[in-house]
Amino acid sequence: MARKCSVVLLLALVAVPALCGRAGAQAYLPEDNLAYPVQVLVEGGGGTGFFVRRDRDLFLVTARHVLFDQATGRLHAREFTLRALSKDLKEAAVTVLHVNAAQLQESQQMRADDRRDVAVIRLGTLRPERIDTTPGVAPFDYLTRYADVDISSQIFMFGYPSVGVAGFSQIDTTRPLVRGGIVAGLNPVLKTIIIDAPVNHGNSGGPVVQLSRTNRLRIIGIATQFVPVPEDVVGVKPGDSTMVALGNSGYGVVASADAIIDLISQL
Is the dihedral of CA 52, 258, 66, 7 positive or negative? Predict the structure, then answer.
């Protein structure tokens, strides 16, 4: 069952997320945190994103390449669809939002950072008189800047990865997955974060959460790409040449939350 609404300037209704609380002595996430990643469905592709609220404004955060063609800089499509699970674990309904991206772009409610591969859209204004606990929404204050990221700290990456082989996959593509890892390193020139967790197609734009040294969960950025590694591909037949392909090294790249904070501040 899906709860649907069309969005030009979304009048959304939110609740305080469990993501903002303490993780406790053990490194785990409450099950309702699966309501925080948002599936972004775009014609010919898609990825993951998440909602952020600042005061009464609601924003969608995702990777720029999920919405824009990297070569032309144009929107992949004039419209796209968002899907989010309910924070109520007993509720099977899914929130479905149809977004008119072209109109939001024309009204200057969209900002993108080409270099850091981050896009932010202001969807609308929240209405506090009607509280809807269905989608998970992260407060702006829980975006953590690059300077506060701890190397070797535990992280959780949320997303809707496109993994498996058609007809044989064990993955339910309508539900998000959580991947654990650590902050493996930092790139101070690009202000990117390297995590010891592979980023797959569909993970792009998904939130990456750090379990800090004080046992608090904070969003440190979004997954944007995997770190490639060259792999030899040997021909099937004798005499076939060996080619070099780029495989997934198991490390992922995270655009720091600095870009998200900067873009939201411009809207």
Answer: positive
